[in-house]
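In this supplementary section we document a worked example of the pipeline. Step one takes a protein sequence of length 252 as its only input; no multiple sequence alignment statistics are reported here. Step two produces a three-dimensional model, which step three serialises into structure tokens for compact storage. The input and output of this example are shown verbatim.
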Amino acid sequence: MKIRTVLVSQPRPESEKSPYFDLARKLNLKIDFRPFIHVEEISAKEFRKSKIDIRKHSSVIFTSRTAIDHYFRICDEMRIPIEESMKYFCISESTAYYLQKYITYRKRKVIYGERKFEDLLDLLKKHQSENFLVPLSDKHKQEIPELLEAREFQFSKAILYKTVMSNLSDLENVYYDILVFFSPSGIQSLFKNFPDFKQNTTRIAAFGPSTSQAVKDMGLRLDIQAPTPQAPSMTMALDNYIRKFNKQNGSK
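The serialised model returned by step three reads:
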């Protein structure tokens, strides 16, 4: 049978220009979106228990838009003024531009990398004397603090939000040809919601090495992987795989 249905374990894109919608039109697919995990805030009361004083930091390192949202939220809840002298280091250009939601971008010191945290480290070297604050989820990549420690940066790890598995019980009897994952937590959520999940003919797509490894660790078959030199994005990886598969199964 041809591949016709895809479930992406992320929120539906806000823009209709998303490449997922282009993919659906080009290949006549039904693509649904459903977050397998969601983020919940850590309250100011809970954050105070960490004994971290945001005001003692001269720079902030942002690894995601979610981190930006929760940094400014906690500052607002704790009535901490946003100093104009604060420097912002962002993992990518798009993350940096998201800061405009909270600050006057052109009046602040904003530095960004190429997408990988390792790339950002080279920029941080020039600011070794800074005291960095790193807003993170409770389930963050351990390599981030480890790399900062290895380079002997002065920093505080601020857990401002937590990753929680979503309730997917309404999907119990729903079948998709492809399930698309972007984090190990998404795989964990799949098995928490459906402990007896059997892959059978369902294809699994995974973005990033840690997600791919989580698929294998759970005994699942990894059918589609991104990024690769041939498919730097998940939509390109899906496009390549589905075109090839559906061509081979054109009469079915």
